[in-house]
Amino acid sequence: MGKSIKTLPVDVVNKIAAGEVIQRPSSILKELVENSIDSNAKKIDVFITDYGKTELQVSDDGDGMNLNNLKICFLNHSTSKLNSFDDLFALKSKGFRGEALSSICSISKTKISSCDNNNGVRNFIQVENNDISKRSIEEGAKGTTVTSSNIFYNVPARRKFLKSDKIEFKHLMNEFIRLSLSHPEIEFTLRHNNQLVYNLKKGNQKKRIVEVLGKSVEKKIIPIEEKTNLIKIRGYIFKPEYLNKSRNNQFLFINNRYVKSSYLNHAISVSYESLVEKEIKPSYILFLDSDPAKIDVNVHPSKIEVKFDDENIIYAIIMSTIKHSLGKFNVIPNIDFNNDINLSTHYEMRVSPPKVEVDYNFSPFETTDIIKDSISNEASIKNESISIFDDIDLKLINEYPVFDFSNKFLITKSKTDLLVIDIKRAYYRIYYEQLLDEISNKKNLSQSLLYPIEISFSPNDILIIKSVKNILNHLGFVFSVQKNNINVTSIHPIFDFKEVESVFMYIVEKNSSGFEELYPSVNDHIAKLLAKAKSKKILRLKNKKEQDLLLNRIFNCKESNLCPQNKKIIFKFSIDNINSKFN
Question: Which domains does the chain have, with CATH numbers?
Answer without folding.
Answer: 10-199 (3.30.565.10), 220-331 (3.30.230.10), 391-572 (3.30.1370.100)
